[in-house]
Structure formats: structure tokens, C-alpha cells
Amino acid sequence: MEQELRDDLDHGGARGTGALVRVRHFAAARAAAGVPEEELDLAGEVDLGAVVAELERRHGDRMARVLASVSFLVDGVAARGRDTPLPAVCSVDVLPPFAGG
């Protein structure tokens, strides 16, 4: 998937700051979004917090409540906080909270 996004950028010309993010929703996040995945084209210096803000803007209060308790993977690696910087092309998985220990 990420390669498809990178190919799209290669064919679309130069890109300044920002990120093209493929978001995959699981469980409650999928229900709140109404779609299994979506693409975000974000401007500026982009971190995970910018993705969260855009998802809340697009999908409203229900999504905001879900996002308060989920975990995120950025390109398959667990994000350590909402200030996690994102590369220009990446994937973000929105995962349900995990129990156990």
C-alpha cells in the first residue's frame, strides 16, 4: 500500500512539507469512520496529532471518543505519542485498546 502512495507522489510532481497518510481503521474506529480505510493529504509539519485532529474533524465526536483510547502503528511500528513525526508517505493503523499483560 505504501508503495502505491509513493508511486502516486512520484507521478504527481514535487511535494513540499506535509504527508500523504493511508489510515486503516479497526474495530470501533472502523465503526466510527464508516470506512475500513481512508487517505489524508495533510499540509505542514505532520505528526500523529495532526492525523488525529483530521480524523476527529471528518468523523466527529464519536471518533474523538474512540481515538482517546486506541493505539497507533505508523508504518507497522508502535507510535509513542501524538507528537510522533510522520514521513511524507506513510500508513497509520488505528487499533483497539489491548488488555492483558
From TrEMBL:
Q: Which domain of life is it from?
A: Bacteria
Q: Which residues cross the membrane?
A: none
User: What is the name listed in the Swiss-Prot or TrEMBL entry for this protein?
Assistant: Molybdopterin synthase sulfur carrier subunit
